[in-house]
From TrEMBL:
UniProt key word Cytoplasm: yes
Family statement drawn from the similarity comment of this UniProt entry: Belongs to the glutaredoxin family.
Role this protein plays: Has a glutathione-disulfide oxidoreductase activity in the presence of NADPH and glutathione reductase. Reduces low molecular weight disulfides and proteins.
Annotated PANTHER family: GLUTAREDOXIN 2 (PTHR45694), GLUTAREDOXIN-1-RELATED (PTHR45694:SF18)
Designated name of the protein: Glutaredoxin
Secretion signal span: none
Gene3D superfamilies documented for this protein: Glutaredoxin
Pfam families, per the entry: Glutaredoxin
Cytoplasm listed as a keyword: yes
Domain Glutaredoxin stretches: 4-63
Length: 84
């Protein structure tokens, strides 16, 4: 299983949905809360080129946000990506 990292904030509905999907699939993930740490948010923005949360990585692949991860799931491409 590829390592999964997700940058979040506690009050973000899309973050909650992304974590719910990963939990439903039994995927462990490293959650990085950027809500109170401007340096972590800056790190996320530098790595992703985006300023919104969630930002999700599966292994070295930047998936994007919840919409992109959900689209991968609908197309049957999320599980193979998680498996590496």
């Amino acid at each position: 299983m590829q390592p999964v990292t997700i940058y979040t904030t506690p009050y973000c509905g899309f973050c909650i949905a992304a974590k719910r999907l990963l939990n439903k699939k039994g995927v462990d993930f490293n959650e990085i809360d950027v809500s109170h740490d401007p340096e972590l948010r800056q790190e996320m923005m530098q790595k992703s080129g985006r300023h919104t949360v969630p930002q999700i990585w599966i292994g070295e692949v930047h998936v994007g946000g919840f919409d992109e991860m959900s689209d991968l799931e609908r197309r049957g491409k999320l599980d193979p990506l998680l498996q590496g």
